[in-house]
Amino acid sequence: MIDLLSKIAVKYNSALRYLLVHSQRKLFFRNPKSKIHHSFKLGGNNVLDLSPEAVFEIAENATLNSNNFITVKQNARLKIGKETYITRATISCLGEIEIGENCILGEGMKLFDHNHQYTTNPFSVAKTEFNIGKIKIGNNVWTGANVTILKDVTIGDNCIIGTGVLIYKDVPDNSIVKLNQVLKITPF
Question: Who's near 129: CB < 8 A, 6+ residues apart?
């Protein structure tokens, strides 16, 4: 009897997870301007804050795996290239974030295309006013765990970004960026 109840519980939980992911996947399709390939994969346990006015371009075999925190606000644009894999990331898009093809974006990665507005005299940080920019990540980019990429940054093609690196300026094609006391860019 316990085996039967256990099997029923497993099937029930599996069905609930499927329904949740299916309902979350629909959130990406609300804006008719969005272009999302039918092969787009969305994993479970994602936290999504997606505006109905946000525009998504998601190419074939792109995967947003599990445990991501994704915010795409009104009139913002998120583009993900084909064969790109993202897991356990935070993507906060108020303007535009473009991720190229065949990328692997590692656990704990954070993308912020904006920052809070502030004044220095008198010092004040706005809670709801932002300076909005763009992030562009090229093709064949691999990020290690806990990489942070800030607004107005372009990362070129064929780059490796090491674990724990903060990217605050452009990275040229064919570079390896390692965690040091300063941002170090090493061409191949």
Answer: 116, 117
CA distances from 169 to 7, 156, 183 (A): 52, 11, 9
Widest CA span in the chain? 71
Helix (H, G, I), strand (E, B) or coil at 159: coil
Q: 105, exposed or middle or buried, with CB in 10 Å at 0-12, 13-18, 19+? A: buried
138: CB partners within 8 A, 6+ apart: 100, 154, 155, 156, 157, 158, 159, 173
CATH topology assigned to domain 2-187 = UDP N-Acetylglucosamine Acyltransferase; domain 1 (2.160.10)
- H or E element: which one contains 5? helix 2-26
The DSSP H or E segment spanning 8 is helix 2-26
Residue 143 to residue 101: CA distance in whole angstroms: 14
Nearest by Cα to 111 from 164, 167, 67: 167
Contacts of 42 (CB under 8 A, 6+ apart): 21, 24, 25, 28, 63, 64
C-alpha 121/C-alpha 57 separation (Å) is: 41
Q: Which residue has the tokens 């295309």?
A: 113
- In the chain (188 residues long), the average pLDDT of successive 10-residue segments reads 67 59 83 95 93 97 96 97 97 98 96 91 87 97 97 97 95 90 58
